[in-house]
Here is the input.
Amino acid sequence: MITMRQVVASILLAIAVTASVGAAAGERDDDPLVVNSEAFQRGHPDMRWRNLGATRYQQKRYREAVRHFRDAARYGDKPSQAMLALMLWNGDGVEADRVQAYAWIDLAAERGYGSFVATRERFRTALSEDERRRAMELRNELYAKYGDEHAKKRLNLEMTREKLKLTGSHLGRPKGVLMLLPGPDGRVRAITDSVFWNPRYWSPQQYWALQDRIWEPSKGRVDVGPVQPVDAEPAAAEKR
Here is the structure.
């Protein structure tokens, strides 16, 4: 029987894999160099804050993880919204709050990603009628701030702003120019600008389509069983 902590572990594993988006999407091998670069992550705060949140969670620095996941959630990052839900359900770094947890997992399931929909339904069956009512009231508040209608606009603006900042003085230059980017290991490597500026990363429409391909059920499903009681030790040990 899969517990909520196993669901957390599954999402964290998926985040680790998708930190190299190209590998998860079947793209070329040098893509991890692109998505882990400082220049890329300045224009993609959803991934920057999501990855920081996952790192802090694994370090059991839960309060910092909550802050980073919430920052990513502002840019429509569904895995981060799901992690906030699970942390609220389990009481990791925050007071356990099933009403807030359900509201966040409902938001995470906005695009119909299978694992998040399944988790939402397991949460729902564990709530009382009064808790469900209050959760739906809170849900409306979250959608008004973090729902795709608003969050995607924020990220689209960041992508456009960073692209203009980096390319504005170089328009019209020949294709195939080399760019020097620091890799995850700190070493600087050269790639062609056509790899870095691939539209799947910088065209908002294509970037959102890429996220859908990564997180839809066909790209990796998490089957979730009934909600199980969890050990309260992490919450007691970490109210950071």
Residues 148-167 form the longest helix (20 residues).
